[in-house]
Amino acid sequence: MPETPRLSIVIVTFNACAQVDACLTSLAAARIALTHEIVAVDNASADDVVAMMRSRHPHVEVVALEANVGFSRANNIGIRRSRGDLVLLLNGDTLVPPGAVDALAAVLDRDPDVGVVGPRLVNGRGEIELSFGRMISPWNEWRQKRRGRALQQGDAGAVSWLDGMSHRVHDPDWVSGACLMTRREVADAVGLLDERFFLYTEDVDFCASVRARGWRVQFAPEAEVVHLGGRSGATAPATTAAFYRRSHVAFYEKHHPRWAWWLKAYLRLKGDWPPREPPAAGGAVLS
What we know:
Radius of gyration: 18 Å
Largest sheet: 8 strands, mixed
CATH topology: Spore Coat Polysaccharide Biosynthesis Protein SpsA, Chain A
Order of helices and strands: EHEHEHEEHEEHHEEHHEHHH
Strand content: 15-25%
Helix content: 40-55%
CATH class: Alpha Beta
Number of domains: 1
């Protein structure tokens, strides 16, 4: 019987054949010290990503779904199919350099109070992404969006703040699900990812559940991963926006029910209320 791996890497794929190929190639080149397995769950892609993975990366266990079941549910399928004590949720639009995965595992190994750990994320140009933050709430969302706009505009104060925060260890409320490592016992304790979130906010919700059970969420700058991102909005902006709004409302209904009515009213007033069913659940599941 094959040795049980220490680490399971779960990747949800939806089209983006070239990006997924690059991600898996980077993992092979990273020479991860931990014994590990890779489980890729494909959300009914229309391109050749499944065939590519099976031919070019035969060591990867590929689970080809017949329908796009969403990011959370597909990750849960992958987690349940995997065996490692540690679980790394990884987007297929990432590139993982040597040392990054082992550095994340070292954080969990040396501090049992940490239940989730995430790396510093940079984009394809090497610019730091805002990949951590405070719990979603009306006030925190306003602050996060304001900070995000300042970063996009190259505001010196915002850039300096992000540079400082992304180079020191700290405990935010959440880290990005583009690259998030946890222990299997932690994931099982919180019931895995909440499948009401088809796409977006599932990482914030998962981290909130972990913190509610007494574990900490940690940002680990010693690990850096490239997150190419942006494919969803570029290829299917209307679909992506609908998924985001549905998850946004579901998040408030779960965590801030007294604010949910106001959010719904605001979205209707703006003409931004999502349809009952998102347009053709085909938006990419790469954030």
